[in-house]
UniProtKB/TrEMBL annotation:
Keywords, comma-separated and alphabetical: Cytoplasm, Nucleus
GO cellular component: cytoplasm; nucleus
Pfam families named in the record: TPD (PF14811)
Protein name stated in the entry: CDAN1-interacting nuclease 1
Organism whose genome encodes this protein: Sciurus carolinensis (Eastern gray squirrel)
Length: 170
């Protein structure tokens, strides 16, 4: 398996030149999977993380990013941990939702990917850091936003209805 994966990453390792060229052509022309598509997805994801960082700075919110959290020894990290939690006000609710972390997803939140993210990432973040917010920049299926009361909120953009929690000195 590792030999085949290595050859798929670098078709020049395939002894048969015709087969090596065909594999290379498949990789280059694959519009759904493969290293080129992964590179594009990674770049778009990074672009949205930078956008989120800029929005947090614009709101004067203090945060730690993934790199800072990894330097502190965390293995599973959301994109941003808010050093001072915010309350995301909900026009349909009497009380707001407290947010400790934000995860940026430069994708559409479909049922399959969202459930995988919940299992692989979001509940781990919730266990370590408390309630959080996931931004699906390209929208999501509304019915998937069913864990608000358990502490995982979904939005399609950066929320404008936030209030910073601060400690009273009185």
């Amino acid at each position: 398996k590792s030999v085949i994966n290595s050859m798929l990453r670098d078709p020049s390792q395939i002894p048969d030149g015709v087969l090596a060229n065909q594999v290379y052509q498949c990789i280059v022309n694959d519009c759904c999977y493969g290293p080129l598509v992964d590179c594009i997805k990674h770049a778009i994801g990074h672009e949205h993380e930078v956008l989120l960082r800029d929005l947090l700075l614009e709101k004067n919110l203090s945060f730690l990013d993934e790199d800072q959290l990894r330097a502190k020894g965390y293995d599973k990290t959301p994109d941003f941990i808010l050093q001072v939690p915010v309350v995301m006000l909900c026009p349909l609710a009497v009380e707001g939702h407290i947010i400790h972390w934000i995860e940026s997803k430069a994708s559409f939140g479909d049922e399959c990917s969202h459930h995988a993210y919940l299992h692989d990432q979001f509940w781990s973040y919730w266990n370590r850091f408390g309630p959080g917010l996931v931004i699906y920049w390209y929208g999501f299926i509304q019915e998937l936003d069913c864990n608000r009361e358990r502490g995982i909120l979904l939005k399609a953009c950066f929320p404008t209805d936030i209030v910073t929690l601060c400690h009273s000195t009185a």
